[in-house]
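#random but structural
TW: two for the price of one
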Amino acid sequence: MNILFVCSRNKWRSTTAETIYKNHATHQVRSAGTEPSARIKLTEKHLFWADIIFVMEKKHRQRIIAKFGEGITDKQIIVLDIPDEYQYMDEDLIEELTQKPKIIYN
C-alpha cells in the first residue's frame, strides 16, 4: 500500500510521519505539503501514487479537494486532527502519529 502524509509545509508533521513509517514491511510512504513554501510541494503525481492519504488537518483535505478535485475521487483521505504545534520528531507528535493512523498496522 502507498501512503501519503500531508501537512502545510512538509517540514515537521508529515515529514515526521514519513520518517516513522518509511521502513514498514508492506507499505511505501511519502510526504508533501500544501503550501507554496512546502519543502516538497503536493502534486497530482503524489495523489496518483497514493492508495490512502493522511492529512494533518481538515484544511489540508479542503485544499486537496479544491486543487485536485477530479483527480482524487477514488482516494481515501483521512484527517488526523494533529495541529501545527510540533517540531520534527517531537515525542508528543510521534505518539499522536503512532496512535491515530491504525490502518498502517493492518
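TW: number two ↓
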Amino acid sequence: MKTKIFLLYGGKSAEHQVSMRTALSVIQALDFSKYEVNPIYITEEGHWIKREALSSPCQHVEELKLAPNTPTVQRMAVTTELFDHHNENEQTIIFPLLHGPNGEDGTVQGLLEVLDLPYVGNGVLASAAGMDKVIMKNLFAEAGLKQVKYVHFTRYQWEIAEVAAYEKVETAIGYPCFVKPANLGSSVGISKCKNRDELITAFQEAFQFDRKVIVEQGVVAREIEIGLLGNEDPQCSIIGEIVPKKEFYDYKAKYEDGDTALIIPAEVSEETYEEIKQAAITAFKALDCSGLVRADFFVTNDGEVFINEVNTMPGFTPVSMFPLLWKHTGLDYSQLIDQLIQLGLERYNDKKKIRYTF
C-alpha cells in the first residue's frame, strides 16, 4: 500500500513564492509508485485548498496554484478531511513545505499535533524558537554557544523611544550592523547599515515584516553552513560556504539573480570542521529539533567560529544549500526526502509511547 502524503505549500507569508518553488521540486522528486501525493495549497490570504491527488509530477509552479475564482474553504474543513483520511489501515504523513510565519513557526505544527497527524520536520517548540531569532539566540547563549553581539526591539519600544533605540545600537553594537525582522527567513527585510541614516531606513524596512527586530554586529567572516538530519541522534553533512558577490546574501542573491557562489565542500581545517559540527549538534539539541536543520556559522580569518542561526525548514529546492550539502555527503534529493518522511513517522511513533492518563 502506498504511503499517503499531504503536501502543504504556499502560505500566508512573505516567503509564499519560495514555498511554491520548494513544493514543485519535492513533487518532481517523489516516487509516485511509493507515495500517493495530495497537494494542499494555502493562499496568501490563508485559505486552504485541497487539490485532487496527483497522478504524475507537475512541471511548472503555475500548476500548483489555482485558477481565478476557484472556491476556497476554511482551514478546519480541510483539516477535518485530513483527519478523516488518517486511519490505522493506511500510512499517512503531512509534509509542511512552508517557509516563514504561519507555517515554519510552529503554528501549523501545533495544528497537526492537535489533530494527531504525523508530519515531517521540526515540532512546535523547535519551529517556534527557530523562527524567532531573539528567542533562538537567547537559547544559544544559555547553551554556551559563541555568537556575535545582538540587541532587539519591539515596534512599541521603537515608536516610543526611536532615538534611544538607535543610540543603543550604536553603543552596544556599532557599525557595520545588520537589522533583521526577528520572525522571517530567506533574507527578507534585512539591511546592512554603516551609519545612522541607513539604520533609520533599516528599522522602517524591517518593521514592515514583523513586530520585533534584531540588530546584529557585522563581522568580517566567511559564511559557512552545515546540514543536520535525524531525531535523537542527528548526523551532520559536510560543510559549504556562501560567497555572495554583493555585500551580503540577500533575497535577490538567493532566489532571483543567482549572484552567489556556493562552495561545497568548504575548505576549513579539520579542527574547525569539528568545532562547527559540535556547535551545530548543540544548537539542534538546545532547540529540541527533529528531522532537519541547516545551521549557519561565521568563521573569521583567525579561525574564530560564531553560530549565526539555524533554519528549521531551510531552502529545499535541489539547488538550495541544504539538499546540496547532503548530495555531496552521499544522499541525493529523492533519498533525502524519503529519509525525512521516515524520520517524521519515527518521531510520531515514539510520541505514541507517551501516556495521557494517570
